[in-house]
Design a protein that fits this description.
The complex is a heterotrimer of chains A (270), B (156) and C (263). With 270 residues, chain A is α/β, with parallel strands linked by helices. Helices cover 39% and strands 23% of the residues of chain A. In chain A, helix 6 runs parallel beside helix 7. By secondary structure, chain B is of the alpha/beta class. The radius of gyration of chain B is 24 Å and the shape is elongated. The mean pLDDT of chain B is 82. With 263 residues, chain C is an all-alpha fold. Chain C is built from ten helices and no strands. The chains are: A alpha/beta (270), B alpha/beta (156), C mainly alpha (263). The interface between B and C is medium-sized, with 25 and 31 residues.
Chain lengths: 270, 156, 263
Amino acid sequence: MSQEPLVEIRDLNFSYDKRPILTGVNLTVPRGKVVAIMGSSGCGKTTLLRLIGGQVKPQSGAVKVSGQVVHELDAEGLYDMRRRTGMLFQFGALFTDMSVFDNVAFQMREHTDLPESMIRDLVLMKLHAVGLRGAHNLMPAELSGGMARRVALARAIALDPTLIMYDEPFAGLDPISLTIVGDLIRKLNDALGASSIVVTHDVHQSLKIVDYVYFVSAGQVVAEGTPEEIRHSTTPYVHQFVWGEADGPVPFHFPTRPYVDELMQGVKAK
Amino acid sequence: MSRSALDLWVGFFVAIGLASLLFLALKVGNLASASSTKTYTLQARFDNIGGLKVRAAVKSAGVVVGRVSDIQFDQKEYVALVTIQVDGRYRFPRDTFATINTSGLLGEQYVGFEVGGDPAALKDGDVIKKTQSAVVLEKLISQFMFGKAADGGATP
Amino acid sequence: MVRFVLDALARLGAQVTGRIWRLGFAARFFLAILASSGTALRRIHLTMREIYFAGVLSLIIILVSGLFVGMVLGLQGYDTLQRYGSSEALGVLVALSLVRELGPVVAALLFASRAGSAMTAEIGLMKATEQLSAMEMMAVNPIARVVAPRFIGGVLSMPLLAALFSAMGIFGGYLVGVHLIGVDEGAFWSQMQASVDFREDILNGVIKSVVFGIVISWVAVFEGYDAVPTAEGVSRATTRTVVTSSLAVLAADFILTAFMFRG
């Protein structure tokens, strides 16, 4: 087993319509580890996942998966890479016109020639791993939020990927589902011998299960470390984030002119 | 919607769609009569074809026996050259008269074949020798008025 | 004042260039659909599913509308024809109006609002809920899997629906003309058969409906694929589909009619 990291990002710069989203990002995901990428909304976390998955191209810098630069892959190379990658989208993104069973079986039917009997066994196995084997006949509209998330997880691991990416897996879940999803992320990663990237802003859940954390703010990596290091970090931004403080480097007030001026304007107008 | 139910409905839809196309083609249009029987070509020269159009019918004894396929202007003789596709089942004698008639009083114009008694028949590519041009309404009216003027010139 | 005019001009220019850019994108999208049609045709069940949703589910509205349009043609046609003593030509009038124009055009407009808007909403919603993105990440081309079957399903359904519309309309005209008003049944059908030509009228009508099918399906899937991925964006996209495809159908009808029926 090579010790080269599965995902390596070096000096990444990405902008959209001349607006810089990511600046000079350096990030590594070692094999077999679960890495969290944290930060407040709109800081570019989801864009990172899209760059790794090859859905968008960076302006400069390199994103390497298994040693291959993603945006230089040809169609076949990209196809191979995506076959070995699983992704859990925010809120699941299950195919609403298919049953739970068909959703999980989708990749198997599209990319393999396995007979239906074998696909059935595999699908039930994946659903069993997430605890929803009994729901295989339901339609996505009939599932609760937590159940839909778990089915999406089962779908993400359908072809036993080596890299699993999670986009806000904890968003909007009840406490029970939160624990379940967190446990599953860790257990599946270890069982499959895969590497996982979890993009989230749920501090509590992620620090329980991940091996390493990257903090992204305004398009740059501002802090990184193991969960222990992060908990005791003195970096102001990290401290505010981890301990949930109302005001700090991320200001409470939306930037504008001082309140006094606003009030005085009314007075002066008289 | 199970697979077999869906297949059934789609099959039903395509079947009635094709059936209505068939209905339109056969019962509404003239596909049945415009069959692929073999035709042969005849030509006829007219001084005036009036309002005859391409694809007009060619009738003999009131039965459609062919269609006008082409109308050209003959530069040498300054007449109209009409090309006719005749149904291969029918033969006409060499002294057939080709006339241009009007169906009804103000209706469409068609070519009429009036047969003579010549035992020899017209072959593919032959030219019909005897033709009668279309009746032009203006000439008819001016003839009538001329005749009237000639008859009762004294009438005020 | 000058600034105001300049601003207005700049906005207009931006709108025009925006639309032209979008048209170019739509054209490239069309080529992409054609290129990935192989999957839709090889896995025919995908396309058949879309024929069901676009064609079979439009049957009721097409058949009922066709019947009513034909019946109205019968009434209106008789009213005008009998003034010139040509009431026996009612069959001809009903048949030619339907087969040449009303069948393809009205069926297309109904199809655009029923099936076209449904296609746009489906694809737009899949985009908004990241299903298309998920498919892409699973190395499945969403254009081949989701868009092309819907496009081909629409193109195949349209001519069948137009033929059904015309057939129902002629039947409606027959019911009103022969059974309600009393036009001679024999004259109704025989004059119709004599005047309606297969190549000139019926085939041209079919060609028109195929062209309309392509136009409507193209606009519908494009607007869905290009929709802003929010609830409001999808609803605006469906409105745009109905408006744009209806106008395009009418414009195409004029161009095709000018070509075909130069007389």
